[in-house]
Design brief:
5 helices, globular, binds copper (II) ion, 22-stranded antiparallel β-barrel, 648 residues
């Protein structure tokens, strides 16, 4: 039953050996170290590779955004208990490219109740990889802030067998999750079944007030893989899910988050002496979202209901050539996204985005010391406004490029990298179609262009390891929502951004380890001479861990500074600055116990002292729930959780 790595496995991320090791360790985590609750995963060369199966603190909600929030540099715009919007280094929305097994997914809600991550249940994937900055061209149009890859890893068998895992989570506020995964197969193929269910009631904040935040969610998937020989993988995956969520910060709740997904990929390895891989990926994602103000709350006034959705389909063909110590990845991709609304007569498309691109990424140099990675892509995007009979269109050609040098210092456990990237981002659906964007945005809004320098280092000593990544960038025609006068409008401004993340761990005595992380993001709106809105404040985490062979325990202290750099009533389609925010500190405790190679348990108490606090990036609560104007939603108070994982 031992899994045999397919040739080229994990090369989905353009991988230096260190990263490869990280990625593969995350995919097949069975040793004791991997069982420990994760509080702030580290990174290498601006890339975070982490398992989606390991327990995390604070305990994530059912969706992708809450998991991302445990990674230094990420914040989340909360609107209830789940389905928040992830933000990396203060950058929101389509500045992040979120892919599940290579596929893009788009929700339909005009106010982003159904963010892409709302449809992602991390535990039905295996690994999460975050590529920070505009530093990759092979995953579709270059995202300016980062690329997020939720991926299932191929399940390969050297002899007939069955394996799988059961993961159960229980916690405060009626939290109950069941995750089941099983794979069976032999040398010529495999079948993988994934299923999960997650429910929670409203949580109480640190002052004991109930926050409208309950959710119900399920997801399922079937993956069939064929491996007729060592060099071929054909994989078909079909998935579906649905859910509902109550939102303290919105005028309506989400009563449907239905998703249907199909992906098909074909990979061939070692086709000739130089052509080491050809990959062809195709996907279809269909989302159907209903929001209303009566099924999950006591309705006040008129009853409202809206049904919207998105259909995203795409294809990517790429090849990898190895020529001496140079690796070239080149290919082409196409994606079509439609947005639709449902009325009495059925679904009707009101917007269509069509993107076509070509890309090439080259890695040069010996892997032992230095290597140079460069990429170039060119995209054409066409957008059709189908809201009225006279269809209007706009289109653009978007160039993107990056180059990065990675250096391993001789005789020292240090790796350095430094790179510069340029990308143009086409305005997304919310920026040119939503009612908050204003009437003229379709014609007037310009592409957002980002030029960013990313650098960092990793040090892996015997008892001390550390990493850091820093960035500085200019954003030309940054797309900003202005709510200061009614109706709200969207506009282009010029901005400067900078910041970074750093972390370290120190084994200061046998069994003891001290870990820390620090992240900061800064932004200036140069056109208006104001801070850039919706920037998270300085945040640090200190973790003290004690580890024995079969158990471990840790304390995490998360400290967040006050945020005074605000631009009131400015922000993005979902969030806006609501004034300065106070700093806070939250202490949490966790413990892990390993019963056997197959069975382990993690337990934790988040917010041990039941502190009442709210994050700076946050929505204001609705008055019908008793919130005063502009009053932000508070985070969960003391929350216990227990997670049991059995794998076979
Ligand atoms: Cu909605």
């Amino acid at each position: 039953m031992s899994p045999i790595p397919l040739r080229g496995f994990c090369t989905a991320i353009m991988s230096p050996p260190l990263l490869l090791a990280l990625c593969c360790a995350a995919a097949f985590s069975t040793n004791a170290e991997q069982v420990m609750t994760v509080t702030a995963p580290g990174e290498a060369s601006g890339i975070v590779a982490t398992s989606t199966h390991t327990p995390r603190q604070p305990v994530p909600a059912s969706d992708g955004a809450d998991l991302l929030k445990t990674i230094p540099g990420f914040s989340m715009l909360r609107s209830g208990g789940s389905n928040g919007d992830p933000v990396l280094r203060g950058m929101f929305g389509s500045r992040l490219n979120v892919l599940t097994d290579g596929a893009s997914i788009q929700g339909g809600c005009g106010s982003r109740m159904d963010t892409p991550t709302a449809y992602i249940s991390p535990k039905i994937y295996d690994t999460l990889t975050v590529l920070k900055g505009p530093q990759s061209v092979i995953y579709g149009p270059m995202a300016s802030a980062g690329t997020l890859l939720f991926e299932r890893q191929p399940e390969l068998f050297s002899q007939p067998g069955i394996k799988g895992s059961v993961d159960l989570l229980a916690g405060a506020n009626g939290r109950s999750d069941q995750n089941v995964m099983t794979t069976f197969g032999n040398t010529s193929g495999y079948v993988r079944l994934d299923g999960n269910r997650s429910v929670s009631e409203d949580y109480r904040d640190g002052s004991g007030h109930k926050v409208p935040s309950m959710w119900r969610k399920w997801n399922s998937g079937v993956t069939v893989g064929l491996t007729p020989d060592d060099d071929t993988l054909a994989e078909l995956s079909i998935g579906a899910g649905d859910g509902k969520a109550r939102y303290a910060g919105r005028m309506m709740d989400g009563s449907r988050f239905a998703r249907k997904s199909v992906t098909f990929k074909l990979e061939k390895y070692d086709l000739s002496k130089n052509l080491s891989k050809v990959s062809w990926q195709n996907y279809y994602n269909d989302t159907d979202h209903i929001m209303d103000n009566y099924s999950l709350r006591q309705s006040v006034g008129m009853k409202h209901k809206n049904e919207v959705g998105g259909v995203t389909m795409g294809s990517r063909l790429s090849g990898v050539w190895d020529i001496g110590s140079t690796e070239v990845t080149a290919g082409t991709d196409v994606m079509r996204k439609t947005h639709r609304k449902k009325s009495a007569t059925g679904w009707r498309d009101d917007a269509q985005f069509l993107q076509m691109g070509v890309f090439s990424e080259i890695r040069q140099g010996a892997v032992e010391d230095g290597s140079l990675v460069s990429g170039l892509r060119l995209d054409r995007v066409q957008v059709d406004d189908k809201r009225s009979l006279q269809q209007k269109s706009r289109s653009s050609v978007l160039p993107g490029a990056f180059t990065r040098y990675e250096l391993l210092l001789p005789d020292m456990p240090v790796k350095l990298y430094s790179g510069i990237g340029y990308t143009e981002r086409y305005p997304d659906y919310w920026e040119i179609f939503s009612s908050k964007a204003g009437q003229s945005s379709f014609h007037e809004l310009k592409n957002e262009r980002t030029l960013q320098w990313d650098s960092g280092l990793i040090y892996n000593g015997d008892n001390v390891s550390a990493w850091a990544s820093a960035y500085i960038g200019r954003v030309y025609d940054y797309i900003l929502f202005d709510y200061s006068s009614a109706p709200s409008q969207v506009k282009n401004v010029n901005a400067t951004i900078m910041g970074g993340e750093t972390g370290a761990s120190w084994r200061f005595a046998p069994h003891w380890e001290l870990e820390s992380s620090l992240n900061y993001a800064w932004g200036e709106n140069r056109s208006d001479g104001q801070p850039l809105p919706q920037m998270p404040p300085l945040e640090g985490r200190v973790m003290l861990n004690y580890q024995q062979p079969t158990w471990s325990s840790g304390l995490m202290w998360r400290v967040v500074a006050a945020q005074h750099r605000v631009a009131d009533k400015k922000g993005n389609v979902t969030g806006q600055d609501l004034g300065a925010n106070a700093g806070f500190g939250v202490l949490s405790w966790n413990a892990d116990y390993i019963f056997s190679d197959q069975l382990n348990m993690s337990v934790g108490i988040d917010n041990l002292f039941d502190k009442a606090y709210s994050e700076h990036l946050n929505m204001a609560g609705m008055s019908e729930f008793g919130y005063t104007s502009g009053q932000q939603i508070k985070e969960p108070g003391r929350t216990w959780w227990l997670e049991i994982n059995y794998h076979f």
